[in-house]
Amino acid sequence: MECTELQSVSLYDCDLEKFQYIGPDIEIRLNNLSKIKELDRQRVSVISCAASTLVVLKLDIDHQREDIPINVSGFPVLPNVKTLNLTLPTEPDDTIIEYIEIGKKCRSLETFTISLYWCAPITKEKTRSNIFGHYFKHVKISGYRGIRSDVQIALYVIGNAENITIDPSCHPYDLVGLSESEAMKREEAGRFHAKSKLSPCVFHPRVKLVVL
């Protein structure tokens, strides 16, 4: 459904299982949705209302919106989320590894997908936090180019996940400004970097790294 002048959405006391909103920031209120299992591109305030029932969560993080602080300390615990998709804007010198903290909030997480695309820097201050000590079953990183932010996340994941998939395919956001040949060149560069630089970093036999 398309509504060009929509200002707010209120949903309560219904059997809705999935909710997705794509558009400018508006007020969204969800109350007493006992069957909600999937949220797509929602703010933290909305997620909190469905934290106990969610199974699938997709977050398209907008660093300019100030909705998800980089320390993620106020992010709700999501005990039943099994699939988490994070879409993150990056630039070469960004420090975005702290956002993996969101995955640690998902106590039943099975598949963790991190999609990276080129944008303005999201780093305000270089924060330090104890992000180690949590093990993920399966993590996929898409949009891998081999720049600093990508490598940081990949190296962390190699030390904290059992199955890792690196996908150098360009994010759809990036494809808007790239020709087909430019996209292929970037993809090949990302694939070469992953195979030559990341594969030698896999030391533990239980860690499986696949570069697409």
Short description:
It contains five helices and ten strands. It has 212 residues and is α/β, with parallel strands linked by helices.
Describe this structure in words.
The longest helix is centred in the last third of the chain and has 19 residues, at 180-198. The chain has an eight-stranded parallel sheet with strand order 2-4-5-6-7-8-9-10. With 212 residues, it is of the alpha/beta class. Helix 3 links the parallel strand 8 and strand 9 (161-167). The protein has five helices and ten strands, in the order E-E-E-E-H-E-E-H-E-E-H-E-H-H-E. The protein has one domain. It is globular. Helices cover 21% and strands 26% of the residues.
Topology:
Layout: E1 8-12, E2 18-20, E3 27-31, E4 38-40, H1 44-49, E5 56-60, E6 83-90, H2 101-104, E7 111-118, E8 136-142, H3 148-158, E9 161-167, H4 172-175, H5 180-198, E10 208-211
Parallel strand pairs: 1-3, 2-4, 4-5, 5-6, 6-7, 7-8, 8-9, 9-10
Tell me the distance between the termini.
35 Å
Quaternary: single chain
Mean pLDDT: 78
Total strand segments:
10
Output the helix-strand order.
EEEEHEEHEEHEHHE
The DSSP helix count reads 5
Strand content: 25-35%
User: What is the molecular shape?
Assistant: globular
Roughly how much helix do the residues carry, as a percent range? 10-25%
Overall structural domain count:
1
For the largest beta-sheet, the strand count, sense and barrel status come to: 8 strands, parallel
Spatial ordering of strands, largest sheet: 2-4-5-6-7-8-9-10
Low-confidence stretches: 120-132
By helix and strand content, what is the structural category? alpha/beta
Radius of gyration: 18 Å
